[in-house]
Amino acid sequence: MAKRERFLAAVTCPTCGKTGSAEYEENENPVHGDGLNRVLLAVPPGFRKARKIEADGTPKLVCI
Do 21 and 11 contact (CB within 8 A), yes or no? Predict the structure, then answer.
């Protein structure tokens, strides 16, 4: 089974400049466990998860 690692990613709204940190979990090594298999764990205040996903499979966040 692939090891999982957690990390924070900075999020900035291009319209209003609001910032925050989203928490994700993904496979440590994408070769094992069918790719990165990234999961969004926590959304920063003032943002929400969008229906769309980024090209790399990351859930897209939008400013509310």
Answer: yes
pTM reported for the whole predicted model: 0.75
Dist. CA 2–CA 57, nearest whole Å: 18
C-alpha distances in Å from residue 40, one per residue of 14, 15, 25: 20, 22, 7
DSSP codes joined into one string, the chain: ---EEEEEEEEE-TTT--EEEEEEEEESSTTTTTS---EEEEPPTTEEEEEEE-TTSPEEEEE-
Give the pLDDT of the chain (64 residues) as one tens digit per residue: 568 889 999 999 999 999 999 999 988 776 655 667 788 999 999 999 999 888 877 888 999 9
Return phi, psi of residue 27, to 5°: -65, 135
